[in-house]
Amino acid sequence: MSRLYFICDHRGDRQLDETALPLQVGGEGPADLVVPGVDAGVVAAYIAVADGHPYLQPADAAVTLYHNHERVTGSRWLKSGDRVQVGRAGLLLWQVKGDQVFVRAERFEPPAAPPPTAPAEPRRPTLALPVAGTPPAPGGLPVRRHWIGALVALLALAALFVLIAVPVAIEIEPAPETQTLHGLPGVPLAGRTLLLPGSYRLEAQRTGYRPLEQALTVSRDGPRELHYRLEELPGRLRVRLAPAVSYTLLVDGTPVEPTAEGHHPVARGRHLLRVESERHLPAEAAVEVAGFGQPQSVALSLRPAWAELTLDSQPTGAVVEVDGAPLGMTPLTAELLQGTRRLTLAMPGHKTVQLDLPVTAGTPLRLDDVVLPPADGTLALTSTPAGATVTVDGLYRGTTPLELALTAGEPHRLRLTLSGHRPVEQAVEVEPERTRELALALPAELGTLFVSATPADAELLIDGQPAAAATGRLRLSTREHTLEFRRDGYASERVKVTPNATASQRIDVTLQTVAAARAAATPQRLTVAGGLQLELVRPGGPFRMGASRREAGRRANESPRLVRLTQPFYLGVTEVTNAQYRQFDPAHASGSGEGVPLDGDDQPVVGVTWDDAARYCNWLSRQQGLPEAYVADGERMVAVTPLNGGYRLPTEAEWAYVARVHGRPEPVRYPWAGGYPPPAVVGNYADARIADTLADTVPNYDDGYRASAPVGRFAPQPGGFHDLGGNVAEWLHDYYAVYPDAAERQVTDPTGPAAGEHHVVRGASWRFGSVTELRLTYRDYSRTARDDLGFRVARYAR
Question: For the whole model, what pTM was predicted?
Answer without folding.
Answer: 0.44
